[in-house]
Amino acid sequence: MPVHDMLGLVTATLPPLTLVVGSEEVSIDTALRDIARAVRQRHPDALTQIIAANEEYASAEIAQALTPTLFGDTSIVVVTAGESLDDLTASALLQAVVEPDSTAICVVIHAGANKGKKILAQLRASGPPEIACPAIRKGRDTLTFMAAQVRRHGRQATGQAMQVLYDAVGHDPRALAAAISQLCSDVEADPIDESAVRKYFVGIADVAGYQVSDAMLERRTVDALGDLRWIATTAGKGAVGPPVTAALASGLRVVARVQGMPRGMSDDAVAAEVGMPAWKVRTAQAQARRWRPDRLAATTVALADLDVVVKGGFRGRSADPDQKIFAMERFVVEATASED
């Protein structure tokens, strides 16, 4: 069950046992927050107790935590490393949570791997709600996760906006969730669009670097030079370096891959082949039409030389920030110059 659906389910039913299956920590944390919030809507004083099933005295701690208290206080018992539960403890847990006088809301977190498969089947047999938290893979999985995070905040965002954010933050689900939370809190535009993300992260060279890359690939020399100067002004001259060359390299790779696809392929087919959204394929195709293959190859070689300069210097001597900016500006001018 998707994490973002869990709050409504728990609020409606408060099941005595919920399974959280998977290894993605940010999704697990989200699920636990949802469950705790739902429980405390009815029982504001409910306390959470976390027990690791792979600890020495876990069985005794679980049994004690699930025993009804004298005053009937509701508690949230979270059992981590559920794959390490033994048969006896799992059976006792299942029995305890269905007792009429049980005051515990139990959550078992199971990694979902081969270890503990028998225990997981045993826990599933009682039909508890289950939240899937599989590892989030790079690319489409991450973008799907990001879209779900936006919906959790009751907001909407365009695919382009999420791609820009992904390009900026990288594949770190926890960092992406935090960035989305901040965007949803601070950006009034709905849906959140690409320009809003770029403005919000204007001081981050990684994001602005992609603006330079897009301008260069579209042969917009003045815009690319202006973006370079904007990075130097807002983030400091020292920021005009590896983050920008990395963005340029990423853009060139995408254009080269799209340019190499057979003619007549649909946008969806190309997207599936290169592993990117169809809208980004269309953007890359428009950029690719501005480049001859030989010119693209020469620019890629020139970028490798530029990368050496911004990471090291000229002929073994370290380049200062002004020299690096000059080298990048010269690269942009030469790359975007009119072809013969």
What does this structure look like?
The chain is of the alpha/beta class and 340 residues long. The chain folds into three domains: 3-133, Rossmann fold, CATH 3.40.50.300; 140-200, Helicase, Ruva Protein, domain 3 (Orthogonal Bundle); 205-336, Zinc Finger, Delta Prime, domain 3 (Up-down Bundle). 58% of the residues lie in helices and 10% in strands. It is built from 16 helices and seven strands. The protein has helices at 6-13, 25-42, 58-65, 87-97, 117-124, 140-152, 159-169, 173-186, 194-200, 205-217, 221-234, 242-259, 267-274, 278-288, 293-311, 321-336, and strands at residues 17-22, 47-52, 75-80, 104-110, 130-133, 313-314, 317-318. The strands form two sheets. The protein has a five-stranded parallel sheet with strand order 2-3-4-1-5, sandwiched between helices. The protein has a two-stranded antiparallel sheet with strand order 6-7. Helix 6 crosses helix 7 and helix 11 (221-234) packs antiparallel against helix 16. The longest helix is centred in the last third of the chain and has 19 residues, at 293-311. The protein is elongated, with a radius of gyration of 26 Å. The N and C termini lie far apart (58 Å). Mean pLDDT is 83; it is low at 1-11.
